[in-house]
Design goal:
By secondary structure, this protein is α+β, with helices and mostly antiparallel strands. It folds into 2 domains: 104 residues, Phosphorylase Kinase, domain 1 (2-Layer Sandwich); 245 residues, Orthogonal Bundle (Transferase(Phosphotransferase), domain 1), CATH 1.10.510. It is built from 13 helices and 13 strands. Helix 4 packs antiparallel against helix 6, helix 4 packs parallel to helix 13 and helix 6 runs antiparallel to helix 10. It is globular, with a radius of gyration of 23 Å. GO terms for molecular function: ATP binding; protein serine/threonine kinase activity; protein tyrosine kinase activity; SMAD binding; transcription coactivator activity; transcription corepressor activity. It comes from Nothobranchius furzeri (Turquoise killifish). This is Protein kinase domain-containing protein.
C-alpha cells in the first residue's frame, strides 16, 4: 500500500487511484472512488478510517497550491459570515470545507460529500428544468452571491459544473456553490485577464471594460437561461464599444455620414483578425431573434405557468443588462417577484402555486 500510494502521488503522474490512503495530522482517508478529474485537481470519494464517515477529498496539483490556499481562506471567511435572518439560509449555500492539509507535497481539502453537479444532472435528466424548479436554484445562488458581495469577493467561475445538488433524492432542488479556486477580492479584478467560461462571460470582460462582482450576476443570468432553453445576448451600447480595449477583436467601426458606429464582424473578418479558423457552435435556435422568442418557444397551456415564465424572463433580462452599472444586484434580485412569488398571489392554478411554494421553501 505504501509503495502504491507513493507511486500514485508522484508529481509527474498525479493520478489518484482507488484503494490508496492519504493522511492529515488527525485522520487517514482511504480513496473509494475518483469522481472528477479537473484541470487543476482531482476529486475523490473517501472514507475516514477513524470515523467511517464518507467524505469528498480534493487533491490539488502542486503548482496550483497558492490558488487553492486562497480558496481555503475564502471558504473560511464565508463560514464565519452571518447573513440577515430574512434569508433563512447562510453558509449552507456554499460547499462546506471541513479541513485542509498537505501530504507528500500535495494540498488536500476535505469537503462534505455532495451528490452531483448541475451539469451531470441535466445530462442524466435529458431535459430542461421547469420554471418552478429554477426559482429554488436562482434563490439559493443569489443568496450566495449576496454573501460574496458582503465580503468583497467575486466567484468569477459560475457555471453548471460549479453548482452541485446536495442530495437529489431527499432534497431534489437543494444546491450549493462550489469551486472557489478562481475567486478573488473584487478590488483586484482589474488585474485579472480573461475570466469566466465563454458561455457565461460578461461583456465588460470581453470588451476590456472595468469589472466588478456584477460579472457573477451576468453568469447567473446565462446559467438560468441555459437551464430553461438557451441564452441569446445583445450588442453592447456605443459608449462601451468606444471604451473597450478588446472591442476590435469582435467589432469593426463603420462610418455613417459624419458619425461612426460599430458593427459585429463577420466570421471571415474575425478569422482574418485572429489568424485561425473557427468551429461552428450549436445553432438550434437560429430562427429565433430575441430572448422572449427563446423562452416562449416553450410556452405551455397553463396560464399560471406562463405568468411565471414572464416573471422569470423579466429577472433574467435584468441580470443580462449589458451595462454592469444598470445590472440588477443580488439583494434586489432576491426581492424580485419571480423569487418572492408575489405575482402568483392571485393565480388561478393553486396546485401549481402550492408546488412552487414547496420547491422554493427548502428544508
Amino acid at each position: 500500500m505504501e509503495k502504491s500510494t507513493q507511486e500514485c502521488l508522484d508529481n509527474s503522474i498525479f493520478r489518484i487511484k482507488e484503494g490508496i490512503s492519504v493522511a492529515s495530522k488527525f485522520n487517514a482517508y482511504q480513496i473509494q472512488k475518483v469522481s472528477h478529474y479537473r484541470k487543476f485537481s482531482q476529486i475523490a470519494e473517501c472514507r475516514n478510517e477513524r470515523t467511517g464517515e464518507i467524505l469528498a477529498i480534493k487533491f490539488v496539483k502542486k503548482k496550483f497550491h497558492s490558488q487553492n490556499r486562497r480558496e481555503v481562506r475564502i471558504l473560511k471567511q464565508l463560514k464565519s459570515l452571518n447573513l440577515p435572518k430574512c434569508y433563512v439560509v447562510n453558509f449552507s449555500d456554499f460547499i462546506k470545507l471541513n479541513d485542509s492539509f498537505t501530504y507528500r507535497g500535495f494540498l488536500y481539502q476535505e469537503f462534505e460529500l455532495l451528490d452531483q453537479t448541475l451539469f451531470d444532472y441535466l445530462k442524466k435528466r435529458g431535459d430542461t428544468l421547469k420554471v418552478a424548479e429554477l426559482r429554488a436554484i436562482a434563490q439559493q445562488i443569489l443568496v450566495a452571491l449576496s454573501a460574496l458581495k458582503q465580503l468583497g469577493i467575486t466567484h468569477t467561475d459560475l457555471k453548471l459544473d460549479n453548482i452541485m445538488l446536495v442530495n437529489h433524492e431527499e432534497q431534489p432542488i437543494k444546491v450549493k456553490l462550489i469551486d472557489f479556486g478562481f475567486a478573488c477580492e473584487t478590488e483586484t479584478l482589474k488585474e485579472k485577464g480573461i475570466l469566466h467560461n465563454l458561455a457565461y462571460r460578461a461583456p465588460e470582460i470581453t470588451l476590456g471594460l472595468p469589472r466588478d462582482e456584477a460579472i457573477d450576476t451576468w453568469s447567473l443570468g446565462c446559467l438560468l437561461s441555459v437551464l430553461i432553453i438557451m441564452k441569446l445576448l445583445g450588442q453592447p451600447d456605443k459608449k462601451q464599444l468606444d471604451e473597450g480595449t478588446l472591442v476590435s477583436n469582435y467589432f469593426r467601426k463603420v462610418k455613417n455620414g459624419s458619425e461612426c458606429s460599430w458593427r459585429f464582424k463577420t466570421l471571415k473578418q474575425y478569422e482574418k483578425k485572429k489568424g485561425a479558423v473557427s468551429r461552428r457552435a450549436h445553432a438550434t435556435y437560429d430562427d429565433l431573434t430575441t430572448l422572449d422568442d427563446l423562452f416562449f418557444s416553450q410556452n405551455t397551456n397553463n396560464s399560471t405557468e406562463n405568468e411565471d415564465i414572464e416573471a422569470f424572463l423579466d429577472l433574467v433580462k435584468k441580470m443580462l443588462t449589458v451595462d454592469p452599472a444598470n445590472r440588477i444586484l443580488p439583494d434586489d434580485a432576491l426581492k424580485h417577484p419571480f423569487i418572492t412569488t408575489e405575482h402568483l398571489d392571485v393565480a388561478s392554478d393553486r396546485r401549481y402555486v402550492k408546488k412552487t411554494y414547496l420547491q422554493t421553501h427548502l428544508p
